[in-house]
Amino acid sequence: MDDNREMRMQASRYARQEVLPEIGKEGQQRLGASSVLIVGCGALGCMQAELLARAGVGRMHIVDRDLVELTNLHRQIAFTEQDAFSRASKAEAAAKRLRSINSSIVIKADAVDVTPRNVESLIQDVDAVLDATDNFETRYLLNDACIKHEKPWVHGGVIGTEGVTLLVLPGKGPCLRCLMPVPPEPGSFPTCDTSGVLNATAAIIASWQATAVLRLLVGSPPPEQRLVSINPWDGTFNSFKVEKAEGCSCCGLRGFEFLKA
Questions:
Q1: Exposure of 252 by Cβ count < 10 A (0-12 exposed, 13-18 middle, 19+ buried)?
Q2: How confident is the model at residue 184 (pLDDT cuts 50, 70, 90)?
Q3: Phi then psi for 203, rounded to 5 degrees?
Q4: Which of 18, 110, 157, 255 is the most exposed place for a label (fewest CB within 10 A)?
Q5: Is 192 in the active site?
Q6: pLDDT digits (tens, 9 = 90+) for 188-222
């Protein structure tokens, strides 16, 4: 593709987005120069990644160790039946789809676990982190790493028909451990396997998370840090102010015990 055609294509691609006063041409340029890490490539991660790729975020790193299964397909929009039949890597299959959607951005995929050994290197060169995980151990690990290195991140989770999300801005408000000082005991919290998940709820929560990141990347003042709970099946929406906890073992005392695990 010649340079002039490439320029015309990019100008056309983002035309309806650049006309938004909240973004504009300058905001679009900022998106193109930004980098985001998405941890997990299930229902939340697939939607997050597609929204950010279509919005023109210049570099995305997707991390997920799992393989595609048929039970994923009702909610994980990046994958096809062929991906499930071939037991494709979620991270690689998602990256392939995203490259077909927007060939002008850089997509990196890693089929690895996120652990105390690699999490700090994973977040080192990104501007924001999106939580698309399905377990609290990884979320608390992300919280430690992002607070330590002052990386904004957006927590999200969906069980059944309800989803929650919380924006975490290190040094400017509460962290996950201000809300939940310790993770739930193993087996004490419902999972998608035991309680199911509504695909529309996952799409709404992922969209909320992606919007929070887009605001950060274009330089828009972030909204107040609140825990948002949405249940589209019941038609309910709740927003709760989360206070920064005095003596928080993570953002207060900076103990980072999950990084040391």
A1: middle
A2: confident
A3: -65, -40
A4: 255
A5: yes
A6: 777 888 889 999 999 999 999 999 999 999 999 88
First to last CA, the chain: 49
Residue located via tokens 């040094």:
171
Give residue limits of the domains in the chain: 18-241
Whether residue 56 contacts residue 213, with contact meaning beta carbons closer than 8 Å, is answered with no
Selected from 2.60.40.10, 3.40.109.10, 3.40.50.720, 3.50.50.60, the CATH number assigned to the domain covering 18-241 reads 3.40.50.720
**Separation CA 42–CA 206 (nearest Å):** 11
Q: What is the largest CA-CA distance in the chain?
A: 58
Structure tokens at 107: 């997509």
- Interatomic CA distance for residues 167 and 208, integer angstroms: 10
Q: What is the pTM of this model?
A: 0.94
Which candidate in 41, 46, 178, 192 is catalytic?
Answer: 192
**Residue-level pLDDT at 153:** 98
Q: Which residues, in sequence order, are CB contacts of 146 under 8 Å at separation 6+?
A: 123, 129, 152, 153, 168, 170
